[in-house]
Amino acid sequence: MAIISHANVSQVKRKLSSAAGDIFIPVEIEEGDIYAGIFKVLEKIRPDWPSESITFKLFTDGITNKLVACHLSKDISESDDIVLVRIYGNKTDLLIDRTAEIRNITTLNVLGLAPKIYGVFKNGLVYEYFPGVTLNTDTVAETKIATMVAQQMAKMHKVQLGKEITKEPMIWDKIEQFLCLIPETFAKEEKQIRFANSFGSVTRLRIEFERLKWHLMKTESPLVFAHNDLLLGNVIYNESKRTVSFIDYEYAAYNYQAYDIANHFNEYVGLSIDDIDYNRYPDREYQMFWIRTYLSEYCDVEKPSEEEVEKVYKEVQRLSLASHFMWGIWSLVQYELSDIDFDFGRYAEIRLNRYFDQKDKILREFI
């Protein structure tokens, strides 16, 4: 098991603040002119790059951040040095602990589990590019790729942070934080009407949260250092190296083991609102294969017992409810705050409707 001691965490913090590549850049990239700001950032990170030779590629997988690849070659596949600039979405600091995010990435980078941070600016990060492609609803289900994802998640789950980091599940405080950010009345009348028609009130959601918490706090799933947002766009597959890597550690924290697995399975259905299909949700046989693979790595055994696999499977079904609820509530916050062209109201309906559709069946069968 990879353990990061208190002393090592202090070293990580010093690395972040003082190492040659990790610097703070006093620049805020403006939403309306991101490339002017990126040029200023690159002047500090890559001062030897001639500005007229820099090429940009805007990635659009994220629905809360902008991600831009910067390189010198016209073809990104031919570039030896590629820098990723991630610009935080509007008001996302209300949802995400950025200090913890940077600590997590830096800690995991020391272990070879996350990209290197080159620099931090006022509203974003500059970090190492992992070559490869993000997963889609077809590739995530392929046996060879799923095996690597399960093993990579297990490796991350074996990381232990320093004693100064309280080991408690992030899920309950995070949902509570999100609930506090949902306005009693949405700023736009049409949003308020839609919210009331779909969900009733914030009070109703709070009551539902307390019921869910009462049921799920009985879980015996161990606490691990979890990614907590392993959607398809956050897994990079490198076919030539036969590896997968995880990116975007905004929500990484201690959490229930089964939550991280369940949350990943929930992403098999797709993210694009027009493409979400719950027929893609992995069946029991597939989940048992995946969990068996995961436990082999996590427990460092050739073959975990079927009793162990079954126990994790049951916990995953229960914690899948927490995943739906959390991201449904998160989406309602984004519905009010975000300027991004994405129907967060519809996404909230999809996730919370799925929660209510599955809740009674799962609680009856697995609790």
Description:
The protein has 367 residues and is of the alpha+beta class. Helices cover 47% and strands 13% of the residues. The chain contains eleven helices and eleven strands. It has helices at 6-18, 34-45, 98-110, 143-157, 170-181, 189-199, 202-216, 257-266, 284-298, 306-337, 344-366; strands at 23-25, 55-59, 66-71, 83-87, 117-121, 124-128, 133-134, 223-226, 235-238, 243-246, 253-256. A six-stranded mixed beta sheet has the order 1-5-6-4-3-2, sandwiched between helices. Strands 7-9-10 form a three-stranded antiparallel beta sheet, covered by helices on one side. α5 (170-181) packs antiparallel against α7 (202-216), α8 packs across α10 and α9 crosses α10. The longest helix is centred in the last third of the chain and has 32 residues, at 306-337. It starts with 5 loop residues before the first helix and ends with a helix. Residues 1-21 have low confidence and may be disordered.
Structural class: alpha+beta
Shape: globular
Strand content range: 5-15%
SS elements, strand count: 11
What is the count of helical runs? 11
Distance between the termini: 31 Å
Largest sheet: 6 strands, mixed
Order of helices and strands: HEHEEEHEEEHHHHEEEEHHHH
Compute the average pLDDT: 90
Lateral strand order in the biggest sheet = 1-5-6-4-3-2
Low-confidence stretches at least 5 residues in length (pLDDT < 50)?
1-21
> Which radius of gyration do the C-alpha atoms yield?
21 Å
Helix content: 40-55%
